[in-house]
From TrEMBL:
Membrane-crossing segments per the record: none
UniProt keyword Plastid present: no
A GO-annotated cellular component: bacterial nucleoid
Gene source species: Halomonas nitroreducens
Protein name in the entry: Nucleoid-associated protein YejK
Domain of life: Bacteria
Stated family: Belongs to the YejK family.
Key words of the record: Cytoplasm
Cellular compartments annotated: Cytoplasm, Nucleoid
Length: 334
């Protein structure tokens, strides 16, 4: 992922009586292997977070100053340091109002294949340990990439191309941080929000309906489920949307348009491209539950075949007991 520009500004926040303060960077970061590794780790952590997807507001007044400043930067009318400093200045009051601590605001303009992205994140630290040259344990501050309460990613090419369907902008949506996410979206000028979790759930519901309608045998159902989840999970890992036509071709090579037509002819309300939610995809692959000393886990495609759920009686019926479990039960009865 070649890095074109990168910078780190510091936002300090002490006790509750002192307002947050921006300490801008004096210059951009130099490209280094460590920075490349940080970008890779940051991207992985970001793609695993719950996010909202959307685009910049079409009306300049609603969009605010950031998209306009970004356009000036793209036209070489504003340098990267000034662009990010202005953004950090508008983010500082958000941190003051909604977060107990400050952090380092990292912004990276980089390429990934033929695409170009702008990724930004407020980074926090955690206390860790290291080993000194004299082989002694010493305290060490480490970046905590998993604690990413404020972050966003923009597909610059899709934005410049004026894509009507591609949700080219995404930002973090942490549980309990609704006001922070809304304020961050306002600073970015983001509108037309798409809920990745809900869109993914709708897609999976459409797929389940399709499999049920086709009355597929267990093996075929499992293969199609694996094809969908493998593709969708790969897109989520790369931060790319799911393309329904492409997914349809993977789900059924013999009838590449069948699943796509099923979605289009039914009232699911899905756009041609939807953002994937990794957590929802993971949960769809297996059903799991634990209560009162009982733990159950099984592949989702087995529901309705080897496993049935009786909603009225609230019972789970396992039609074929695993061999190992059956042997244990028999030994207990002997």
């Amino acid at each position: 992922m070649p890095i074109l520009h990168s910078i780190i500004h510091r936002i300090d926040k002490g006790d509750g009586e002192t307002p947050a303060r921006l300490v801008p960077a004096r210059a951009e970061l130099a490209v280094s292997p460590a920075l490349d590794d940080l970008l890779a780790g940051l991207s992985d952590a970001y793609h695993a977070k719950a996010k909202t997807w959307g685009r910049f507001a079409e009306d300049d007044e609603d969009a605010g100053p950031f998209p306009a400043a970004l356009a000036r930067y793209q036209e070489d009318g504003l340098d990267f340091a000034a662009l990010t400093r202005e953004l950090a200045e508008r983010i500082t009051p958000l941190i003051d109002a909604h977060l107990p601590v400050g952090g380092h605001f990292l912004v990276i303009d980089h390429r990934q294949g033929e695409a170009r992205y702008l990724i930004m994140a407020l980074l926090h630290h955690r206390q860790g340990f290291g080993i000194s040259e004299s082989l002694e344990v010493v305290p060490s501050h480490q970046l905590n990439l998993s604690q990413m309460t404020l972050a966003a990613r923009l597909d610059i090419g899709q934005w410049q191309g004026g894509s009507a369907s591609h949700p080219y902008l995404s930002w973090t949506r942490d549980r309990g941080g609704k006001k922070l996410a809304e304020g961050f979206a306002e600073v970015l000028g983001a509108r037309e929000q798409v809920d990745a979790t809900q869109e993914t759930r709708t897609l999976l519901k459409a797929f389940s309906d399709y499999v049920e309608r086709e009355d597929l045998p267990e093996e075929a159902s499992r293969e199609k489920t694996d094809a969908l989840l493998d593709y969708a999970s790969d897109q989520a890992s790369r931060g790319e949307p799911i393309t329904l036509e492409e997914l349809s071709e993977l789900v059924d090579e013999q009838q590449p348009k069948a699943f796509f037509d099923h979605i289009r002819n039914s009232d699911y309300g899905l756009a041609p491209e939807i953002p994937p939610d990794k957590r929802t995809l993971t949960q769809f692959r297996r059903f799991t539950g634990r209560a009162a000393g009982v733990s159950i886990s099984f592949d989702s495609h087995l529901l309705g075949a080897a496993v049935e759920y009786d909603e009225e009686q609230d019972r789970l019926i396992i039609k074929k007991v695993p061999n190992g479990l059956r042997d244990q039960l028999k030994r207990r009865q002997d």
